[in-house]
Amino acid sequence: MDINYCIFDPTGNITALVETEVDAASQPAVAAEIMREHFDVEQVGFVRMLGKGEDPDGAVACLRMAGGEFCGNATMSSAALYAKRNEEHFGDIGCAEIRVDGISKPFSVQLRREDANWWAAGVLMPPAKSIDELRMTAEDYPAAELGTLPVVRMEGIDHIMIEEKSFYYNLKDNRSLTESLIKTICGVLDSECLGMMFLADGGKERELTPLVYVPGADTMFWENSCASGSVAVGQYLSAKTGKAVSVALKEPGGTLVAESDPETGGTWLFGGTKLRDQLSLKLT
After folding, report:
1. How far is residue 23's CA from residue 1's CA, in Å, rounded to a whole number?
2. Are both 144 and 50 inside the same structural domain?
3. Strand 194-199 to strand 157-163: parallel, antiparallel, or no bridges (unpaired)?
4. How many domains does the chain contain in total?
5. pTM of the model
6. Measured between alpha carbons, how far is 11 from 6 in angstroms, rounded to an integer?
7. CB of 41 within 8 A of CB of 77?
8. I want to staple 50 with a disulfide (CB 3.0 to 4.6 A). Which of 3, 44, 54, 120 is the partner?
9. Please, which pLDDT band fits residue 135 given cuts at 50, 70 and 90?
10. Strand pairing of 267-282 and 2-9?
């Protein structure tokens, strides 16, 4: 079987998008094969282009991640892939509605073509389902001071916020312990996917170090950028201050901007994505 796929670079969070139809049960195995072929690919999604009128909400493409999680960077890249495949009528500026498997409504992705294979992108994200607190215990983390960690619950993924003043911030320097801990917390929260966002102090610019664990695909990456985690940061900060927030998040692979308004609950994420390769892989 020949698997046709593209590799996108959305702010360093290298993403493979498979265009060949693969049933959901086989997707994790196909994803693992692609990730073995490309050491820098951090996640794999499967995209199906939709015909006019096929989706009741007007989506033009449907995305399913190999682990069933939600990924903002893959969503933006799917919109760019649609634009690439429909260049004759999409134009240099446009909007693509992307249906993500398991999410109730499509995402509106605004695109502006910068060159033949690179797009600036903005996506309007829905409000967080909730912003809660997780109380850590010595059973979770032997050195725990009985404190709490904020948890932003979203459709398809949850994110833990760890600010620089937190007792837990230094966990980012002990990767093996942190990777063990995120698996434990993922089980406690019963999350489809869990991110741990290490957020440095700052004003309108802050450094962000993202770790993401996807049980369904059995993957864990200290990601170069995390779009949904960046959105969660914006939502958390706006809820914390009670004010509209615009924050540039300097991540290992580049900068993403989150603008969140507690009055409307909506959050805009601004970034970009570049088509790097169009490839084929023969599976036996």
Report:
1. 13
2. no
3. parallel
4. 2
5. 0.93
6. 16
7. no
8. 54
9. confident
10. antiparallel
Residues 134 and 254 in one domain: yes
- Return all residues near 168 (Cβ < 8 A) that are at least 6 apart: 136, 141, 147, 149, 162
* Interacting residues of 223 by C-beta distance below 8 A, sequence separation 6+: 13, 42, 210, 211, 212, 229, 251, 252, 253
Amino acid sitting at position 122: G
Q: How much is the pLDDT for 105?
A: 92
- Two structure tokens written together for 131: 């912003």
Q: Is the pLDDT of residue 138 over 70?
A: no
Same domain, 135 and 64: no
Structure tokens given for 282: 């023969």
β-bridge pairing 245-251 and 61-65: unpaired
Q: In this structure, are residues 283 and 3 in contact, taking their beta carbons and an 8 Å threshold?
A: yes
Number of C-beta neighbours around residue 171 at 10 A? 20
Separation in Å, CA 9 to CA 73, 107, 189, 249, 256:
9, 19, 30, 17, 13
Domain of residue 58 covers 2-124+271-282
| Domain match, 277 and 244 both | no
Cα gap 248→243, rounded to integer Å: 16
Both tokens of residue 28? 């994790």
Same domain, 136 and 175: yes
